[in-house]
Design goal:
Strand order of the largest sheet: 5-14-13-8-12-9-11-10
Largest sheet: 8 strands, mixed
Radius of gyration: 56 Å
Shape: rod-shaped
């Protein structure tokens, strides 16, 4: 009785590979890959042909980043980071809802492709669910469509933005792109003129108010003159009234200039970041006493000069008068130069230059510094105007005292004339400023230049046949490869010797599929010497030079020259499942042993579904079952075959208890007797996983051969079979991979791989009468 350790078959173990032999896997599934690629390419071709072509029109605009500013300071900064921010900001404007709505309204106004008004723009047509209810889509619906059809892209390393529009109609694509360009351009122009427009609107309002005031003054003066019958004043009164009204007009003009500068300073204050909100109050409080004193002196001298000229028009060409004016002008010029220098020093002391070596920090700091500088300059200019206003007010007060000395009967007339003259002069000044502001506003051209307007494209942008075919080909190829690889990883069947080797099992032989060989033989049977058919699967008889016959010879050698000390005499041949070729294997192995000069007995132990008698064209009965039940003698059940030295003991009649017969002492005695007469005894048994017959007989034999069908036997079935045998035997089975198709396994044929018949390649396999001993 064997010990427990003797019943354990030693297992060879090897780590499972992380990846399979991918070239072999792909070659094995090449037809699947080719089919998937072809189908995907065909589907892509059909869909491309059926798809309606789409046209893309594009326009280009240039952002002049050195002009794209709100306060006039980016020109000095010129930083790439700020320029990048400007480009991104402009792209966001193009993507904005407000611009899309403006474009949508413009498309509704245009509505048609051309002036003939025959074909409506597709984008302004209402949705199908609203057809009949209205003739034009709503702004919201058009905006929705624009979001799908319009795209914007910044050209790398440039300040250019491309506006790209897709449409089923090439003309409509160009119209949409140009509509975006126009609305974007006008929006930018409107925003660029915002400050100039605010100044112009302010001056326009002031001009209108003072024009109305002038008309009221003139009407009042005319009514008074008609009522009192006054024609004119005396020369002295007219001169004084003229001077006074001119001074008052100058003071009002200065006051309006102050309001304008205050508005400008407020607009700059809004550009200062949140952390600089205290800047406005700081600048408002910035007040250098020396500068203020110079401004007051300058204002006083300028008013004195203007009053002197207006008081003495008759002395304009006199040398003494000219020398005096020249002296005042020199004083004014000297004070201006000193004021300019002191102002520069003052601004530098308040706003030091940026010295950070980090450019990313320096750029925003430089911009903020210049905003501060501009605000301080405006504040100093405001102080100068206030000083001039104060000087004018002081002079006007002196003239007021002289004005009150006009005779009483003319005082009212003088007041009316004074008001009319002041209003007239102020209106003229405002009208001139308004004209200048209007010209300045119109001179603002924005910072967007239209480089290229869109034109209707000639060729469609999609679908592109070659590109789609390339994509379809790639997708089909990837899908096919993925499917084949996934199928391979999910497939637990044994296909190649490498699959066995990955689990630590070595194949003793690989038998290729016999289909081609049988076709060459002309059918499934050949004739025996008795004139009865013999199974053509006996290739060791029918075609001794075939690859399958050579494989059986290799198996014979592997079994015969085992590494163990004792060569096996009794050999069991089985398989995990039915239909895996064990009967064909044992029959060909028996012939191969006999051809090597061994005396061989082949016993068909498959008492349930015997096959050996059919293969060798023998009688099934009497056989093994009759011998074991003592219904026939040994000499009467052993049959000879067409192969010398090969005897066969067929199965006999099917018994009701085959497992009990095979495990009986009679079976053991039969094998002991056969050992004395034969060199090799081969047992054909039922499948291991189906019945227990093979496991019962495995304890009687010296060697085992397990047949594995390529592409049929599963790895877990093989391992379960080994586990069953290991429970009763310590003999490690030899593995033969049967029905192996190299074309299916590796994607290459035997001929291409260099394998074929040995000897004469032109020799034909034998068929017909087989000779016996």
């Amino acid at each position: 009785m064997r010990s427990e350790t003797e019943h354990t078959i030693p297992r060879l173990t090897a780590p499972a590979p992380l990846i399979r032999d991918y070239p072999a896997v792909l070659l094995r599934g090449k037809w699947v890959i080719l089919m998937a690629t072809a189908l995907m390419s065909l589907a892509t071709l059909i869909l491309t042909k059926l798809r309606e072509p789409t046209y893309q029109a594009s326009a280009s605009v240039l952002i002049q980043t050195r002009l794209a500013e709100t306060g006039g300071f980016f020109l000095a900064v010129g930083g790439s980071a700020i320029a990048q921010n400007i480009r991104q900001n402009e792209r966001e404007i193009l993507l904005s809802q407000s611009l899309a709505e403006t474009v949508a309204r413009g498309l509704i106004r245009q509505m048609y492709l051309d002036s003939s008004a025959r074909q409506m723009l597709e984008i302004v047509k209402p949705d199908k669910k609203h057809k009949g209810k209205r003739t034009v889509a709503t702004v919201a619906e058009i905006v929705e469509k624009l979001a799908l059809d319009v795209d914007f892209a910044t050209v790398r390393e440039s300040d250019v933005i491309k506006i790209m529009v897709k449409s089923k109609n090439p003309v409509e694509a160009a119209i949409l792109a140009n509509m975006y360009v126009d609305e974007y351009y006008y929006r930018n122009l409107y925003k660029s003129r915002e400050k100039s427009r605010a100044l112009r609107e302010f001056l326009q309002k002031q001009t209108l108010e003072h024009r109305t005031n002038l008309e009221r003054m003139e009407n009042s003066l005319q009514a008074y003159m008609e009522d009192k019958g006054i024609v004119s004043l005396d020369e002295e009164s007219r001169r004084m009234i003229g001077q006074l009204s001119e001074l008052e007009a100058d003071r009002d003009a200065v006051d309006i200039s102050l309001q304008t500068l205050e508005r400008t300073r407020s607009s700059y204050a809004q550009e200062v970041p949140a952390q600089e909100q205290l800047l406005s109050s700081f600048i408002s409080g910035a007040n250098d006493p020396y500068i203020r004193q110079l401004q007051e002196q300058l204002a006083t001298l300028e008013v004195q000069r203007d009053v002197a000229v207006s008081k003495n028009p008759s002395l304009s060409g006199k040398e003494v008068f000219s020398d005096r004016l020249r002296e005042i002008d020199e004083q004014i010029q000297a004070i201006r130069e000193k004021l300019k220098e002191k102002t520069r020093q003052y601004i530098v002391s308040l706003v030091p230059a940026t010295t950070s070596p980090d450019q990313s920090t320096q750029q925003p700091a430089s911009y903020l510094r210049q905003v501060k500088q501009k605000m301080i300059e405006l504040q100093i200019e405001i102080q100068a105007l206030r000083a001039k206003k104060d000087a004018l007010t002081s002079t006007i007060n002196e003239y007021e005292r002289q004005f009150e000395r006009i005779p009483g009967k003319n005082i009212q007339y003088a007041r009316l004339e004074r008001g009319r003259l002041a209003a007239e002069k102020l209106y003229l000044v405002l009208n001139e400023k308004l004209n200048d502001a209007t010209i300045a506003e119109q001179s603002q051209i924005g910072y967007i230049d239209v480089i290229d307007r869109a034109t209707p494209p000639i060729e469609p942008s999609s679908p592109i046949l070659l590109l789609n075919l390339a994509i379809g080909l790639s997708v089909g190829l990837l899908f096919g490869v993925g499917f084949v690889v996934a199928r391979e990883f999910r497939d637990v069947r044994i296909h190649t010797p490498e699959d066995l080797r990955s689990k630590g099992y070595t194949t003793a032989a690989v038998v290729t599929s016999m289909d081609d060989d049988i076709r060459r033989l002309g059918g499934t049977h050949v004739l025996s010497r008795y004139g009865r058919p013999v199974d053509a699967h006996l290739l060791t008889l029918a075609d001794a030079f075939s690859p399958a016959a050579e494989a059986y010879k290799k198996l014979r050698t592997s079994v015969q020259f085992d590494r163990s000390d004792r060569r096996p005499q009794t050999i069991l041949v089985s398989s995990p499942n039915k239909g895996e070729g064990k009967s064909t294997t044992v029959a060909n192995l028996a012939v191969a042993f006999a051809q090597s000069g061994k005396m061989v007995l082949l016993v068909d132990c498959n008492l349930r579904r015997p096959q050996i008698h059919r293969m060798f064209d023998l009688f099934q009965t009497p056989g093994l079952s009759e011998l074991l039940t003592n219904r026939a003698g040994y000499d009467s059940v052993v049959q000879v075959t067409v192969q010398r030295q090969l005897h066969i003991l067929c199965a006999g009649a099917s018994p009701t208890n085959p497992a009990e017969l095979l495990s009986s002492s009679s079976m053991r005695e039969l094998l002991e007797q056969a050992r004395l007469e034969y060199d090799v005894i081969l047992l054909d048994t039922p499948p291991i996983l189906s019945v227990a017959d093979a496991s019962v007989l495995s304890s009687y034999v010296d060697g085992q051969v397990m047949v594995i069908a390529a592409g049929q036997t599963r790895m877990e079935e093989l391992e379960r079979s080994i586990d069953i045998l290991s429970g009763v035997s310590s003999v490690m089975p030899k593995f033969i991979l049967n029905k192996f198709d190299q074309l299916h396994a590796y994607g290459i044929s035997y001929i291409r791989s260099g394998y074929g018949y040995y000897g004469d390649t032109e020799a034909k396999p034998r068929r017909g009468l087989l000779t016996g001993r």
